[in-house]
């Protein structure tokens, strides 16, 4: 008989093929996830390291499902799972609470698990659902410091987990054929709609009213619930976009956050709420490995438009601004995007000019302002804008259009852009002096 470690009273090792009723979708999903952790250590390592747990050769990972803990004796709380990481200097434990489909994590339930964790010397709680967060430490639910009672609380989205599995599968890091098979089956299960895994599908309920207020000239309030909820929904969609790009490009695409925002999610919400009120904009920046620059995505509520853009420094080795334009147009030769436009900034000046790609192909000099004929450009912005008009306020249509525009922008434009690289120095031409010969030396010397 299997001996259960502390603090488990009842439970069993997580199974890849759990024997559960069809209605127990959450228990089934959790058991399959933790069962895959047991069978594919690299997969477990990838996810556990995202919540600060370094997994080395001396660590042992145990995973359990449907657990009942020893304390309190009369308790009816049953976490969906428990992970124990055995380390040379002790163990680290986390409870798992998951939701599938449209079910969201509930604050009261997690607070009750905080009490349960304290009584059983458990270090952390990891929640899993179809809700999104920029980082595992940025929980979709806001907890006060005193509510956590020194228990770490993290969050994974199911799509985040699935994306990590897909990237691991394509990396060829796993050499064992059995582990490859297990991971492939895990992916097959969670890619099926019956698993209950889905992306971010719509903005918050207040979205339509917020857009209407901006259109009517009403100034939003920074701390209003509708403003905060709109920003929070945008943050979830931004995370989903980074996962979509990651899967399409087969690399890890991250949201670019400042150190302050990465550490303090509430500061990010406040700053983005300030921007929404002052500029009527929602903005996210994505870092694609080896791309020419970051991708900026802006939703403008006043104009009811979506804009994707990348910025390239202008080449410094060109002698004229016209040749700089030629350098850029060569990079855009493969795109036929009629909505593409280019903005150019002049060196040492805040002045800029802009024109559509179609116009520039016919007349490149359109970017050169009068009086700036001999002034080089400092940088170019390459952008595409989608005007949604009345569709912008549709909570589902907005997301659908955004998730179509961003990958399309990168596929049609972003992948072809190349950052300017200063050329390597060339050898200087020089004339050697004739070598001194004995015939030049005076006699007697």
Summarize the helices and strands and which ones pair or pack:
Blueprint: E1 8-13, H1 25-39, H2 41-49, E2 60-69, E3 81-87, E4 90-98, H3 107-119, E5 124-129, H4 145-148, E6 152-157, H5 158-171, H6 177-191, H7 207-215, H8 225-249, E7 254-255, H9 259-263, H10 265-279, E8 281-287, E9 295-300, E10 305-313, H11 321-331, E11 340-346, E12 352-356, H12 357-362, E13 377-387, H13 395-412
Parallel strand pairs: 4-5, 5-6
Antiparallel strand pairs: 1-2, 2-3, 3-4, 7-8, 8-9, 9-10, 10-13, 11-12, 11-13
Helix pairs in contact: 1-2, 1-6, 2-5, 5-6, 5-8, 8-10, 8-13
Pick out its properties.
single chain; 445 residues; alpha+beta; 2 domains; 7-stranded antiparallel sheet; 6-stranded mixed sheet; 13 helices; 13 strands; 36% helix; globular
Short note summarizing the structure:
With 445 residues, the protein is of the alpha+beta class.
Task: Describe, in plain words, how this protein is organized in 3D.
The protein is of the alpha+beta class. The longest helix has 25 residues. The protein is globular. It is built from 13 helices and 13 strands. The protein folds into two domains: 188 residues, no CATH class; 210 residues, no CATH class. Strand 9 and strand 10 form a beta hairpin.
How many structural domains? 2
Number of strands: 13
Span between termini: 104 Å
| Helical run tally | 13
Strand order of the largest sheet: 7-8-9-10-13-11-12
Bin the strand percentage: 15-25%
Helix content: 25-40%
Radius of gyration (CA) equals 28 Å
Which parts are unreliable, with pLDDT below 50 for 5 consecutive residues or more?
none
Structural class: alpha+beta
- Structural shape: globular
Q: Averaged pLDDT, please?
A: 92
Order of secondary-structure elements: EHHEEEHEHEHHHHEHHEEEHEEHEH
């Amino acid at each position: 008989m299997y001996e259960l470690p502390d603090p488990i009273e009842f439970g069993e090792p997580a199974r890849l093929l759990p024997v559960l009723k069809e209605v127990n979708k959450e228990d089934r999903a959790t058991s399959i996830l933790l069962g895959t952790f047991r069978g594919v250590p690299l997969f477990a390592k990838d996810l556990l390291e995202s919540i600060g747990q370094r997994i080395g050769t001396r660590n042992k990972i145990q995973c359990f499902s449907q657990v009942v803990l020893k304390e309190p004796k009369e308790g009816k709380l049953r976490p969906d799972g428990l992970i124990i990481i055995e380390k040379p200097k002790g163990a680290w434990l986390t409870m798992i609470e998951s939701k599938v489909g449209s079910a969201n994590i509930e604050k009261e339930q997690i607070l009750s698990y905080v009490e349960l964790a304290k009584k059983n010397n458990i270090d952390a709680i990891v929640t899993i659902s179809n809700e999104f967060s920029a980082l595992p430490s940025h929980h979709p639910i806001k907890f006060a410091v005193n509510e956590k009672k020194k228990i770490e609380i993290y969050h994974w989205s199911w799509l985040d987990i699935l994306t990590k599995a897909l990237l691991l599968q394509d990396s060829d890091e796993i050499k064992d054929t059995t582990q490859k098979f297990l991971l492939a089956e895990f992916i097959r299960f969670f890619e099926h709609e019956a698993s209950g895994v889905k992306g971010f599908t719509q903005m918050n309920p207040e979205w339509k009213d917020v857009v209407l207020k901006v259109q009517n000239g009403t100034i939003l309030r920074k701390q209003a619930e509708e403003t905060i909820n709109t920003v929070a929904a945008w943050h979830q969609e931004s995370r989903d976009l980074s996962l979509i790009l990651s899967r399409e490009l087969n690399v890890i695409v991250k949201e670019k956050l400042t150190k302050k925002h990465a550490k303090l999610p509430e500061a990010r919400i406040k700053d983005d709420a300030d921007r929404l009120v002052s500029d009527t904009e929602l903005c996210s920046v994505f870092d694609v490995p080896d791309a020419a620059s970051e991708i900026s995505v802006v939703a403008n509520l006043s104009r009811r438009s979506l804009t994707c853009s990348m910025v390239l420094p202008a080449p410094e080795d060109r002698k004229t601004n016209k040749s700089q334009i030629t350098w850029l147009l060569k990079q855009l030769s493969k795109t036929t995007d009629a909505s593409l436009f280019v903005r150019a900034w002049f060196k040492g000046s805040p002045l800029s000019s802009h024109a559509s790609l179609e116009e520039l192909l016919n007349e490149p000099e359109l970017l050169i302002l009068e009086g700036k004929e001999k002034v080089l450009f400092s940088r170019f912005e390459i952008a595409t804008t989608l005007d949604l008009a009345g569709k912008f306020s549709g909570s589902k249509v907005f997301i659908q259009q955004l998730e179509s525009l961003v990958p399309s922008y990168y596929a049609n434009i972003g992948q072809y852009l190349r950052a300017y690289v200063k050329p390597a120095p060339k050898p200087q031409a020089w004339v050697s002096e004739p070598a001194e010969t004995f015939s030049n030396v005076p006699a007697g010397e």
